[in-house]
Amino acid sequence: MLSERRLEVLRAIVQDYVGTEEPVGSKALTERHRLGVSPATVRNDMAVLEDEGFIAQPHTSAGRIPTDKGYRLFVDRLAGVKPLSAPERRAIQNFLDSAVDLDDVVGRTVRLLAQLTRQVAVVQYPSLTRSTVRHVELLPLAPARVMLVLITDTGRVEQRVVDCPAPISDDSLADLRARLNSRVVGRRFADVPQLVQDLPESFEQEDRGTVSTVLATLLETLVEETEERLMIGGTSNLTRFVHDFPLTIRPVLEALEEQVVLLKLLGEQDSGMTVRIGHENAHEGLNSTSVVAVGYGSGDEAVAKLGVVGPTRMDYPGTMGAVRAVARYVGQILAES
Fold first, then answer.
1. Cβ pair 316, 292 in contact under 8 A
2. What letter would DSSP give residue 157?
3. Burial letters for 16-32: b for 16+ Cβ neighbours within 10 Å, e otherwise?
């Protein structure tokens, strides 16, 4: 374990390097920070930090920069994340409150995160596998054609046109709508197939074919929509950090284009605040980046995740504070929608 003094030296090196982009020397540290020790002691502490792999010397006669291991210890020993200012919190709330539907919420969240953190923002759509049914609507389009509308507790709306084997009366359709909602509203999507399997038998013989067809479309919708989706924004922010990528930024951009990579990345994170630094990211293209992510949801349980991807030379306290605050507001909007 490092002594508290050496932890202070490491914190100072991380803060200075993030702020200046320049390797940090012992003289600069003693001038900028109240470390309470001589430059010679700081040099000795830096030598120990380097021996233990927390900092490295990029060039001969240069200062030191944090390694992935150094950033990891810095993040693990953070006393707290940087809170947003009251104007920033109001701006987030006002911007997200104006959203008209789930797509708009996700789109606004991506833009907001990218602007606040000046990193690449990634927002996963709420997963139907973790969602519950808010309402199922059945609308007559023609004597034998029905519009099925599925609404989730997270505001997600799915529509399907159902071609029925026979005409269905408005009364029978209303009856089906009422019985269907009585069984599935407030229930998890995974439970729906079992909840409705015997529903056709409760109808008159002439309506059973249509009821079965409507239910089949509902269940197909659940299967189709289990495919995860996400939205990404702020990729151009990476051009500000070209010097932070060892050889080229291309592997990072290629990894960001692969939604499967990003979905897997988010899936590996816990729903609480997580930070993956450098080589902790399994995908080789993201080995020079850090990923800060957290779950969001309309209740205590997270239904999806959001976060940012940026260089390892990142303002971790500020980024973590922004990601956490945005996730909290998105959760409130989903709960109220």
1. yes
2. E
3. bbbeeeebbbbebbbee
Q: CA dist 192 to 223, 321, 332, Å?
A: 11, 38, 26
- Band (pLDDT 50/70/90 cuts) for residue 17 is very high
Q: Can you tell me the distance from the alpha carbon of 270 to that of 272, in angstroms, rounded to the nearest whole number?
A: 5
**Most distant CA pair in the chain, distance:** 92
Residues 229-238: tens digit of each pLDDT: 889 999 999 8
Ordered DSSP codes for 251-283: HHHHHHH-HHHHHHHHHTS-SS-EEEEGGGSSS
* H or E element that contains 93: helix 86-97
Cα(257)–Cα(240) distance, integer angstroms = 19
Query: Over the stretch 203-237, which tens digit does the pLDDT of each residue have?
Result: 888 888 999 999 999 988 877 555 578 899 999 99
DSSP string covering 208-249, please? HHHHHHHHHHHHHHHHHTTS--EEEE-GGGGGGGGGGSSS-S
